[in-house]
Amino acid sequence: MHGGRSMAEFLQLLVNGLAVGCIYGLVALGFVLIYKAGEVVNFAQGEMMMLGAFVAFTFIVQFGLNYWIGLALAVVVMAAFGGLLDIVVVRRIIGQPQFSTVMLTIGLGVMMRSGASMVWGPETRGLPSPFDKTVLQIDGVVLSAVYLAILVTTALLCVFLLGFFRFTRVGLAMQAASQNQLAAYCMGIPVKRVLSSVWALSAGVATIAGVMLAPISLIDPNTGAIGLKAFAAAVIGGFGSIPGAVVGGILIGLIELFSGVYLPEGFKDTAAYIVLLAVLVVRPQGLFGAVGRKKV
Amino acid sequence: MTILRAQDLAINFGGIKAVDGITFDVNKGEIFTIIGPNGAGKTTIFNLISRIYQATSGKLVFDGDDITHMPPHRIAGRGIARTFQNVELFEHATLLQNLLLGQHAHRKTRPWEEVLFLPRVRVAEREIRRRVEEIIDFLDLQHYRDVVVQHLPYGVRKVIEVARALCTQPKLILLDEPSSGLNVEETEDLSFWIRDIRDDLGITVVMVEHDLALVNDVSDRVMAVNYGRLIATGTPADVQNHPDVIKAYLGG
């Protein structure tokens, strides 16, 4: 008697886990992009996602704009914010010890969190999505369109980024600058401007993640804490690998949901980190990472 | 005709005058070599010309334009290419990709055209590839075309760096110790290539070099520097016999 039901439950968990994992993956992608480009770990990446969701909330709910227009505007506003953050603040600390950049980005995260609760208040907000009420029923498995939309959007975004990095001049310039800044300058690449564009890009990606997350888990100024899980996802993926970040995110999303149902209480929030530790022990360079030894 | 002119060029790092008021001219079509003991300021001069360092004072004029304050990424498009002492390549990319990046400064297509791969982009890509293949043939790098650079031996990577610099279509190329780390045979090939770069491609060469056999072999003029100051300029023989140059190398 349990056969049918547990199968349905399994499929549902699978889809939900994939969807949540995609969100982690997109935030992790932001970590990786910025790290690859400028060797800065942006610990405010989760907060950028939270801010992006709130900006979209303002456009869509408070201004009553069309969902897609609101989303597009939020991405543009946040991309500008990300770029400015690099130009005005982060750029100045390049060349300082790694510790300073860590403290700086953690501090920026705290400021974004308090800024958000001053502007939008500490309460939880919902963001309606055009997929809200659509439900698909396949063989007794109820799938919400909101979750499927997340999967499709993530897939599209990955294809877009792949094309962008492989075929456009700006994308290639970003890759070049991340491999060797000195050489990139000599090839005529405006390295500083390229780094700021990377910040803009990863703020834009974070915004899309935030807007997709809002309908399934509501948003408040502390939503940025997801950044921690995304960070774990980036590490599992090999910190520096773009596909690795997405796969790492999906892995963590699946582990979280499945362990919440199939394992004893308490594992939901720790299982992801147990896997992280296991990966670090067995394969310290991450699942997709190149061997990270520095040549001397 | 002068292609590059440095006038009272100087840079201080804190209290250290790494380059201390040097004036020199490089003529179009010549092979001009900078020699000097370690720490004399030779590479610093290169870094000033390629605008990685900002000069404290003085002036740099290239091909009629004042480039003293030009941003570093515009130098390539203006026609100055360089190589580095320790080889600065895009290590995770193939030889071909490295050379294609050399053409970056000369691409004028827009992102949406590139994503849609419009005819304009196709024409530009074909032209870029043709030029890159010419350079590959010129330096005999056909074997390594699709190899990821980090897997190649040091000698080959040094040549790749020269190739990439040539792909930026320069008027002037700065070679920073091109022979360091090369064996005797590779150094001999290098002296032919340096001459071919000037004779066949019409590119003016400025190099920093320690191997005096190579210096004598290819240089038209030599400039000796020490402690950031110019000590002598002239033919290779003149400079090497100059009493101040001998003193700089041997002490005393």
What does this structure look like?
- The complex is a heterodimer of chains A (296) and B (252).
- Chain A is an all-alpha fold.
- Chain A has helices at residues 2-38, 45-62, 67-88, 98-120, 145-167, 169-179, 181-186, 191-217, 226-237, 242-262, 267-282, and strands at 135-138, 141-144.
- Chain A has a two-stranded antiparallel ribbon with strand order 1-2.
- In chain A, helix 2 (45-62) runs parallel beside helix 4 (98-120) and helix 3 crosses helix 8 (191-217).
- Chain A is globular, with a radius of gyration of 19 Å.
- The relative contact order of chain A is 0.20.
- Mean pLDDT of chain A is 88; it is low at 292-296.
- Chain B is globular, with a radius of gyration of 19 Å.
- In chain B, the strands form two sheets. Chain B has a six-stranded mixed beta sheet, sandwiched between helices. Chain B has a four-stranded antiparallel beta sheet with strand order 2-1-4-5, covered by helices on one side.
- In chain B, 41% of the residues are buried.
- Helix content of chain B is 38%, strand content 25%.
- Chains A and B meet through helix 5, helix 6 and helix 7 of A and helix 2 and helix 4 of B.
Features:
heterodimer; A: 296 residues; mainly alpha; 11 helices; 2 strands; globular; disordered C terminus; B: 252 residues; alpha/beta; Rossmann fold; 2 domains; six-stranded mixed beta sheet
